[in-house]
Amino acid sequence: MKYNDSQPIRRCCIVTGLRGFSLAELLMAMAVTSLLMIVLLSMVGQSSANYKVAHRKVTTMADSRALFHFLENDLASQVAGTRFVLLQDAEGRTQWAFVRQRDAQQSDATGDLMGCYYYVAFTADDRWRCSPKLLRRTLDVPATLEWLHAGDAATLPLADPAIDEPMAFNVLRWEIRGRTRDASGQWQPWNGAMGTMPEHLELIWESVDDHTAQRLKTEQQWRDLAMSQDPRQREAVQRHVYRMNMR
Q: How far apart are CA 63 and CA 170, in angstroms?
C-alpha cells in the first residue's frame, strides 16, 4: 500500500501559516483605542458639565418662582389707599414699601397693620466674602401708624441688614416698574402720587447661582458683573421677568 502524506503536509502548512500582530500594528491599535477613549471621556465630561449648568439654571428658576409667589401673597394683603412706594437707589435697585394687613395669628389688640420694606444690600457671608441680598424689614403697628401719619414728609423705614429678613440671595438686579392707565386707557408709568397705586407691576430680577457666587468675593466684583456686557460673563446671569396685576 502506497503511503500518502499530502494531508498532514497541508495541515502543517496551515499551522505554520499563522502569525501574530506586529509591533507597528499593536501601536496603531493602541493609538486608535486611545483616541476613541479620549473622545468618549470628552463627551461624558461635556455632558456632565451641561447637566450641572442646566441643574443650576433650574434651581435658580425655582428659587425665583418661589420668591415671586411669596411677593404676590405678601402684596395680596396690601391695604388700598395707604402708602405705596417705589424708589430707585443710587445703583438703580428698587426700594419698595407698602402697608399690608397682618396675618390672623399676628394680630393683637394694638391693630392689624404691618409695614413692609424691601431693599437690596450687601451683607457678609463669611470673613472673606459678601454678596447682595434682597431683604425685608417689617414694621410693628406703632411704627406703621407713625409712618402713615407722616404723610408727604414720610421717609423710607430705617433698614438694618444685620437683622432684617433675607428673602433672596445673589442679587444682581432688582427693579420694579409700576404702570397705570391714563384717561384715554393708555398705559403710562406710575407717577408715585401718595394715595394712589399702580395697576400693573413688572418685576425684573437678575441673579447668579451659588457656584458662580463663590467666585465673587467683593462688592466691586458683583458690581462689575452687573454692569458687564461681555457675553461670556453674562452666561452665568439668570434674568427673570414677572408681571403682576394689582386690580
A: 11
The pLDDT tens digits of the residues spanning 183-239 come to: 888 889 998 877 788 999 999 999 998 888 888 989 999 999 999 888 888 888 889
**For cell 399690608, what's the residue?**
100
Compute the distance between CA of residue 112 and CA of residue 36 in angstroms, rounded to an integer: 70
CB-CB contact of 135 with 161 (8 Å): yes
Count the residues in the chain.
247
pTM of the model: 0.76
What is the arrangement of strands in the sheet containing 187-189, beginning at the earlier edge strand? Answer: 187-189, 171-181, 200-207, 238-245
With contact defined as beta carbons under 8 Å apart, do 60 and 50 qualify? no
The residues facing 202 across adjacent strands are 177, 243
Question: Rounded distance, CA 58 to CA 235, Å?
Answer: 14
